[in-house]
Fold these 4 entries.
Entry 1:
Amino acid sequence: MRQYSLPTIVSYLVGPTLIIVSHVGSLLVLTTGLSWGAIAWIITLYLIRMLATTGIYHRLLTHKSYQTPAPLLWIGSIVAASAGQMGPSWWKAHHLIHHQYVESDRDPHSPYTPFLGIKGFYWAQGGWLLSSRFFPDKLPLDVESDLVLKVVDRLHFIPLVALGAISYYFGGLEYLGAFFLSTTLLFHGVQTVNSLSHIVGDQPFITDDHSRNSGLVAFLTLGEGWHNLHHAFQSSCRHGITIRDGEVVYLPDPTFGFIKMLEFLKLASKLRLPNEKDLLAKAKKQDFQNLELALASKKTNF
């Protein structure tokens, strides 16, 4: 395990502490109630911060599925940190470990190891954050060499605390409770990619794991739930792709829509996408078998 300095250890441990605080703080809404304005605040904070997590932390920072100017990466990382998603070095380190050791003993948040069933679901849904797995073995050199990203990583809790203070300033305890609830919902939304997207859904592509395409998780995470595609083509900036009856089908993927908007505004370039030939080559054989059966059936009817 990497040797962390004491300030870094303390900084990182603030992360799960604030998530626990958010869970408890969500109970405020039971006493304050929620106006339509507070509900809109919950939804707005959820969508913006989820998009920063999926579009910036995941598809840009970790998998480099497209390119942007550095200031956009820095700002997006600050917004993602305000979601309680820790800092960019920590986040990327854990995600790369997941892909490298998927569903093995070294996968930090698999629903299959070290536990199965309900315990495995709890572990993948966030229980792993309260274990020794919380500290990654090593931090990514490319993020650590960027001074701005490194500062954001070590001070990851400041954007979250600042957003809580802003919420209180806007609407007192009601909006503070809304902030806590939005953060809690977002936390569990992100974690469903670790848990549900490896348990339920279909597997149109060949991979060496249980990753699945889940419409429910895709809805909660703005497209991240098309997880089987992501494991089959990790560098793709579009996850919403499947195979039906031997044909490529494109699925709703709001995060990809965000990336395309950035491209339109000249803020994103070099988008990485698999071509249809590669997609079909990676498709499970039964899709082609179903297509052959359908064609044979048509010939028989003639």
Note: Confidence is low (pLDDT under 50) at residues 287-302.
Entry 2:
Amino acid sequence: MPRIQALILASSALALSATPAFAQDTRPAADPQFATFTPSDTPNNDGIDYTIWNEAMSNIVISMGPSLRETAGPPSQGFGTRRQYGHVSRYRLEGTRIMFTFLDSDVIASFTEYRQDLERTADIVDIQALSRNEQLAYWINLHNVAMIEQIAMAWPVRQPRRMEVNGVPLDDARFITVEGISLSPRDIREKIVFANWRDPRVIYGFWRGEIGGPSIQREAFNADNVGRLLDRGARDFVNSLRGTQKRGDTLEVSELFEEVAPFYFSNFEGDVRAHIAQFANDDTRAILDGTTQINANVNEYDIADLAGGVREPTYSNITSSDGTSYSFRLPRSMAQLLAQREQKFQRIIRQGRTGTVTFSNIELPGDPDDKGEIE
């Protein structure tokens, strides 16, 4: 992987996603300690190029495909012996995964270097004076780079939320420094982004390292694609088992919605239902229509990698479609997970559920000048 660095250039980027209407703002008061990061009312046209991080994401992130709203079921015989290796989560065929197993020390060091480059970027450009989309992309990328870096350094680890950095839980450890201010991943989410952006779609940009959370995207966020990627993340999450389920007449939803409720869902049941409906497919709409109450009790804290956060001592050879056997050291549990993933994709193809159309760079009559800014 080449040295990861932040490149500064001129840009007039806008993401092409309509800004929704919002009710009266009832979020918690902003923390004065982080007031310096409040977006400017007079943004400039500067921008940040994340091309190198985009390349990294395309190489280390693997998609498990859209949810079929079916549990993965128990692992088959031989998946492990006396000790269980690999993922056993019922959600293991949903979301995306980071290939931590294959990251060597040089690649991990490049993550640290890139995180530090992003921190120094704030000394070169005025982050608060960028467009709102440009700022949002910066904070999401910095947060996710930092999470990947720390988990990669600690891997193998079963559950990232149990990790500590200098004795402090990962999410609350202030190992990130921007403009001389120490920040934790939680600070970036709650004290900066949630405090200054009213659109709940922003919650889907932040990767927490867990299967049960929003997916990490296979491309870096930037001012052009931030709206599109947040929409994609929202659709993926609310239409998955880890986002919404039905038990009797109860709509069971992810604990994530309860966590962000002070910022986005003050009238919890009504606001969450309206939010889910905005991105729901037919199956999820049926769940909304078939339930009368809501409970935020869905979770999965296992690491969102391919190996279940464990180094497996046994490996399999990989066989190509023409029968050729390759000597490639792939853990057996991972080989089985990837085989299940392939079977899932074949089912999707047989069911005719493939195909995504994305529109961009389209100007429509009557569009406002600030069209696409995430508010």
Note: Residues 1-21, 357-371 have pLDDT under 50 and may be disordered.
Entry 3:
Amino acid sequence: MLQYEVVTLPAKKVVGLKTRTGNGDPACSEKIGKLWERFMETDAYRERMHSEPDAACYGLYTGYGWDDESYDAVVAYESENCPAGFTEVEIPAGEYAKFHFHGDIRAVPAQAWGEIWSLPLPRAYGVDFEEYRNYADGAADIDIYIGLADICQSCGMPMAKAADRGTEADGAESRTYCTYCYQNGAFTYDATMEEQIEHNLNCAPEFYTDRERAREQMRAYFPTLKRWKK
């Protein structure tokens, strides 16, 4: 399994060229490849690389569609200015799973993404991105960052969308608890930790082929969540 570290990143703005595609699009690889070609040929890119030869290039994935697994693919560099015809994207501050590689700029990301999509990461599905540095002879240092969602501190559910979040007494989104556990500044139900575990098991039985193993894992994990800490 791929190894990664969890890092906290500040927000940054990048500008680049965009196309819409997705994992189910037969032309996905071709669209992204042509996007890189267009980007590398732009005057804005050439001027940027000439003035800052060590600047990183970014491949971003954002605007995820929940129904068809589509997304915006953006090839970009970091900048405060957005040239005509370019798109500005903000990489949000937060926690990311960081995967580090060195190798062929085409083969390495393709193989890595094939494995990353299958990992059980609590993904935020906001902005995920590749960062390319130290390019030479078709190879580079490549870091892939996967945005991580906040985890409900009651049931452990990743809160990837605004609709997943509970609400505080003033109506603000909760950063701590999900909509199923917490509304208007109060828990939606009273429960012990054991009752919450059984609730989780019963809500999505298709996810737990070995219920007893899942139960033991939750018993080890839930005491780390805010609601159940002692």
Note: The chain has five helices and 14 strands.
Entry 4:
Amino acid sequence: MYNTYYTYIMSSPNNSTLYIGVTNDIERRVTEHKSGSIPGFSQKYNCCKLVYYEEYSDINQAIEREKKLKKWRREKKEWLIKTLNPDLMDLGKNITI
């Protein structure tokens, strides 16, 4: 059986705050962010817009990537996001609550 894991970046509506996480179910996790149902950083700062994600078959690789991205400076994170999503569109807009 092939499992899929995601390292992803959510932003606030005005892109002022970024949240980086890992999940094995991107649709469920984005829905949780959009609904604000999980207390914590992303709820506090309204990180409800999926702006970037990467797919992995190994959870350890996904977690390692998350840790690496969290250490990056803001400018480098913005550069990475814009390589996939130059207009900062909500890539999770078709995921419903």
Note: The radius of gyration is 13 Å.
